[in-house]
Design brief:
single chain; seven-stranded mixed sheet; 23% strand; globular; EC 1.8.3.5
């Protein structure tokens, strides 16, 4: 889901606050919010816009009910009961100091069925739950293509996370969501060293001592390599052959890249006017705020009108997600005018075509931890944050010898016994 929108729970959790009102939260931390509610939704099947909602919520719900029947109503309750109610348990679990060495154990702590969701497709699960092919092929497919660039053949867990990602209550931080990590660094009073890690070397085994060779970003010499020693390491980037260049040296048990592939996405930002005629609409004003696609045979995944990070109206900027780059002809097909265009290629999230037993661990070696292991279950900001908290708890417990809260069941009654980090 990237950094486009952000949930209230995520920001509260990042800065250590309980669930409080949006307005009071922003007041406390000095950040303003921009609501993303009130937009319109369309779904394109390659030939026509099969559904386009009104900006008025009641009318939009009636239109979706007409198209999908009770599926559109039931999905809200289903996501809440199947995912959110149990997902929210993680905040109490981690507030109680509990940590897990595997992704499956962490998911099982919230609800064991989450592990089962890693081994069944979202399409098969929703068919089992009674949802229609039309709803699955249009609405669920559309959500997955805009959130993950993939289809309803992905595992059910990431599929349900994707459906939660189209919730109407999402919002962004005024000035850009980058302010959240900037705020976290400031609150942590961390010593940030700007550089590219090249080598991780095991110097001593028991207790472990590590050397880090890194290319210094702000040094006089561009290629200058510096070395620092650490007792605990946290790897916070995908260990994938096309992404990772870090070498691990001196380990008796080899630490190597994991074989999972990452999905290559093209994000194209276009300042201009969409071609309403091509999409069968009367004018650019009729173009939906978010246009999803219901087939992987369509070149683009979604087209969404963007809000300014400073919440200033007046500029029409659209974000186009595609799995392959847009060429000039495609841009001319989808847009009448193009005043500015920016294109970014990036490995955005994993290809979700694997089983639960192939997920990477959170612990790579004694006191080396891997935050990105969680991405193989589902990639989202909330997932990264709870993974980071889990790793912080693991490091704390391993360092202090408090091992009774690692890989142990969570006791609801004992939740008041918290480990603060």
């Amino acid at each position: 889901m990237g950094l486009d929108q952000i949930s209230h729970a995520y920001l509260c959790y990042c800065i250590g606050l309980d669930q409080i009102s949006h307005a009071y939260l922003c007041y406390c931390i000095g950040l303003d919010q921009i609501s993303h509610a009130g937009g319109t939704l369309g779904i394109w099947n390659g030939e026509e816009v099969v559904v386009k909602t009104s900006k008025y919520k009641v009318v939009a719900m009636a239109q979706l009910l007409w198209r999908y029947g009770m599926d559109i109503y039931n999905i809200q309750n289903w996501v809440q009961t199947e995912l959110m109610n149990d997902f929210m348990k993680i905040y109490d679990i981690q507030a109680g100091g509990h940590a897990y060495t595997s992704v499956t154990d962490l998911l099982a702590a919230m609800n064991p069925k989450f592990v089962d969701y890693l081994s069944i497709t979202i399409k098969d699960l929703m068919k089992k739950e009674g949802y229609s092919d039309k709803f699955i092929n249009e609405m669920v497919m559309g959500a997955l293509r805009t959130n993950y660039g993939q289809t309803t053949d992905v595992p059910a867990f990431v599929g349900v996370v994707s459906m939660a990602g189209v919730d109407d209550g999402l919002w962004s931080v005024k000035g850009g969501n980058k302010k959240v990590p900037e705020l976290l660094v400031k609150h942590a009073k961390a010593n940030v060293i700007e550089g590219e890690v090249k080598v991780v070397r095991l110097v001593e085994e028991d207790p472990p001592l590590y050397e880090i060779d890194y290319k210094c970003k702000n040094c006089a010499s561009v290629n200058e390599i510096k070395t620092r020693e650490y007792d605990i390491l946290v790897v916070a980037k995908p260990l994938h052959p096309d992404i990772n260049s870090i070498k691990f040296e001196g380990f008796t048990t080899e630490i190597k890249n994991f074989p999972h592939k990452y999905h290559v996405l093209t994000t194209t930002m276009i300042k201009g006017s969409p071609n309403a005629t091509y999409f069968g609409l009367n004018s650019p004003d009729d173009f939906p705020t978010e246009l999803l696609t219901g087939s992987d045979k369509i070149h683009f995944n979604s087209i969404g009108k963007q809000k300014s990070v400073n919440d200033v109206d007046g500029t029409s900027v659209y974000k186009v997600f595609t799995n392959t780059p847009l060429d000039k002809e495609k841009v001319k097909t989808y847009f009448n005018s193009e005043d500015d265009l920016r294109m970014v290629f990036w490995r955005s999230y994993p290809e979700y075509d694997f089983k639960a037993d192939s997920l990477p661990p959170f612990v790579l070696h004694d006191k080396i931890y891997y935050v990105n292991a969680i991405e193989l279950a589902a990639s989202a900001m909330e997932m990264s944050v709870l993974s980071a908290k889990n790793v912080a708890l693991l490091a704390h417990h391993h360092w202090t010898g408090n091992l009774d809260k690692i890989d142990e069941p969570f006791d609801v009654k004992g939740a008041a016994d918290k480990t603060e980090l």
